[in-house]
Design a protein that fits this description.
The protein has about 350 residues and is mainly alpha-helical. About 70% of the residues lie in helices and about 5% in strands. Strands 1-2 form a two-stranded antiparallel ribbon. Strands 3-4 form a two-stranded antiparallel sheet. The protein starts with about 25 loop residues before the first strand and ends with a helix. It is found in: Membrane.
Amino acid sequence: MNEIESSFRVAGQMQTQGLFGQRVLGNKPVWDSGVRFDLLYSLKYLFIPLYFVVALIACTGNLLLLFIICRNKKRHNTTNFLISNLALVDLVMCVFCIPATAFYAFERRGWIFGQHMCIFVAVMQSAAVYAAVLSLTAIAVDRYIVVAYPIRRRAGCQFCWGLVILIWLFSLALSTPTALHTVHLDLRAAGLHTVICEEFWDGKEQGRIIYSCFILFFSYFIPLAAVSISYCAISYQLRQGTKCPELRSVRAAWSRRRKKTFCLLLISVLCFALSWLPLQVVNLIRDLDTDFVIIGKKHVNIVQVSSHLLAMSSACYNPFIYASLHKKFLSCLCRMCIQINLPFFIYLFMCHVLFMHIFP
């Protein structure tokens, strides 16, 4: 029997369960419930390469996206600052969520990074989700401002930096419940030979469920509503008869580009929402179904790892979405991929050695 069988909950479930989402049912921890870890552990050679591929694509694409936007001063506007912030969010996912998942899911010793990293990683994972939602919402609002006020001076870099900082501060504030309820617990004294990093609500089940529902609402309703309202408001503005020549020119340009631009914005929101939907649903089910009736004990870990992997894949999409909107970015991306082939293979080799050392 594995030391962490059934104490394992997927790393990165920041929306409702903190870092790994482990719950305590009354005074009885769920790792005493007899859930078998063997099935999940037998599939580690399937999940680890998949996590590695997702991390590699996301890190490479988003780093290139950040580099290209930062290097080209002509692209320093509000929209691209927010797109850069989305790329930063995806990198945070890659740095904290994916490695933590792989290590904690398949490492027999449990959490090996210490107490401070336990809380830090949980908070950063939670904040990354909030920051992504707020950035997508801000992009939708910015698109409306561009069309509704065409002669208004665009915001400068100072405002953009302030907006990005405000998004992250607000995201960290919303992650406070995660920070307060994440616990680093050494179970080796109890003879389990493992250390866990989990979120414990310690009998406050009503507060936990309210927080879970809030995250589910916040992650889906706000960005989808922002895109819908923005599109309707822009369409209304452009239908209004006006004598303003600037607005007429914007209307003509928008008529040519609005379908592609808003389709890409909608695709970005949908990719984020649909990628996280399975994990959100699984988290909510686990919050409500404490007796493992809906998802059996035997398969709960497999379901959670699979849904978490899909959620992490959301970090891969934005570079491709942005490339489809800007042909110059796509060509530059291809050139840079050719130029960095050597560091790419060095990175690939180092990751291979690391995983072979940890998971022999």
